[in-house]
Amino acid sequence: MRYKTLLALLPALLTLPVGGARAEDYPSTYAPLSSEPTLITHATILTGTGERLDDASLLLSGGKVVFVGKGEVPAGVKTVDAKGRWVTPGLIDVHSHLGVYASPGVTAHSDGNEMTSPTTPNVWAEHSVWPQDPGFSRALAGGVTTLQVLPGSGNLIGGRGVTLKNVYSNSYQGMKFPGAPHGLKMACGENPKRVYGERKQMPSTRMGNMASYRAQWLEARQYIDDWAEYEQQLKAKKDDAKPPKRDLRLETLAGVLKGEIIVHMHCYRADEMMTILDMADEFDYKVGTFHHGVEAYKIADTLAEKGVCGALWADWWGFKMEAYDGIQENIAIVDRPKGACAIVHSDDAEGIQRLNQEAAKAMGSGNRAGLAISPEHAIAWITSNAAKSLGVDSYTGSLEAGKMADVVLWNGNPFSVYAKAEQVYIDGALVYDRENPDRQPVSDFELGQLQGVLQ
């Protein structure tokens, strides 16, 4: 191919950054719902930034937070008197499988694990998401406004995750959080070595896990180098310059190495997490968040020093050997060091409905251990820290002027077992109201089931 021909194709080629999908591939079509300016008054507000404001106001307009506390109120604004009630940012679950393991739980809805190879970074969870999953509306009733949907943990590298706004849509693209980076789901430990060991193939041991990861990173580094060499050839105006073959698997891995894709690592044991961090140093990439991490308390200082979040359960443990050494103070201890990023996640279609109660259990365990954790601090575990983990903290996760108006109005202290989300706003639009059936979304799938019953 002549150089002039290549030059003509260059703009199209450059839309494919090495290691990442092209910007136009499966873009978000999400658009904020129409909303009216709303003033919530006389509320106890937990901002997600460590502040608690009593008898305070919150103004939402144009899909954004206008002010928190006090400010100028325009004429004609809708007012909600929240006396005796609490307000928080919309809750964020960083580890969900809604849509890819949808309800009802039948084989036809089992779309979370592509267990045909130990490494499948070429698959994207969003291509399995079923927007009609009734679990989305149940999570909304629990105050969840944003969630990351991940592949399962049967593979060493399970594929890309997707961050969604919890709104009704006919397509996952209509839910896709605009501007959110891709995540990559990886898994260490028992799951992949069990799945593939039973098939008498590699990996069947933890050392096999590590060797398999490292082989993938080596290929990805070579892929980056091959594209860099090609670009140099173009600059040198070489007539025989030939682009490398596009590889969806290596695109994703190269995206991690280039810092474009966030690693979300399923890992339980402290020693394995330390080994994974060593591997990240070897190949010069960053682990964003360890998920599950029942032994994260043993390495809390290291996680904080390296800027790695811990997305953890409040009290799940003991259901397999690598989950045996869990303690209920895990989240509170991971939260202690300066710069820590502790998160409460669900990994469960029911747990996501009560994420506030899971955080309350973790807070209670910490307080019983003498760590003095306040509600204004603990709310970050399911709001601002979670947003940081997903790379969307500049958009949401806290109640600050200019951020998305993702808000939950609770009937009382959200860390009470009696707490219920009374109203949920996404981008300033009232999308759920416990007292108004017209603001309690029902999917088309459920409507069809109800219609069949009525007939």
Secondary-structure blueprint of this entry?
Blueprint: H1 3-13, E1 38-46, E2 52-61, E3 64-69, E4 78-81, E5 86-89, E6 91-96, H2 135-141, E7 144-149, E8 157-165, E9 183-187, H3 190-197, H4 206-235, H5 248-257, E10 262-267, H6 270-283, E11 287-292, H7 300-306, E12 309-312, H8 330-334, E13 342-344, H9 355-368, H10 375-378, H11 384-390, E14 407-410, E15 421-426, E16 429-433, H12 444-454
Parallel strand pairs: 1-4, 1-5, 6-7, 9-10, 10-11, 11-12, 12-13
Antiparallel strand pairs: 1-2, 2-3, 5-14, 7-8, 8-9, 14-15, 15-16
Description:
With 455 residues, this protein is of the alpha/beta class. The protein has two domains: 11-23 and 91-396, TIM Barrel (Alpha-Beta Barrel); 31-90 and 397-455, Urease, subunit C, domain 1 (Roll). Helices cover 28% and strands 20% of the residues. The protein is built from twelve helices and 16 strands. It has helices spanning 3-13, 135-141, 190-197, 206-235, 248-257, 270-283, 300-306, 330-334, 355-368, 375-378, 384-390, 444-454, and strands at 38-46, 52-61, 64-69, 78-81, 86-89, 91-96, 144-149, 157-165, 183-187, 262-267, 287-292, 309-312, 342-344, 407-410, 421-426, 429-433. The strands form two sheets. Strands 1, 2, 3, 4, 5, 14, 15 and 16 form an eight-stranded mixed β-sheet that branches. The chain has an eight-stranded mixed β-sheet with strand order 6-7-8-9-10-11-12-13, sandwiched between helices. α8 links the parallel β12 and β13. α4 (206-235) packs across α5 (248-257). It is globular and about 65 Å long.
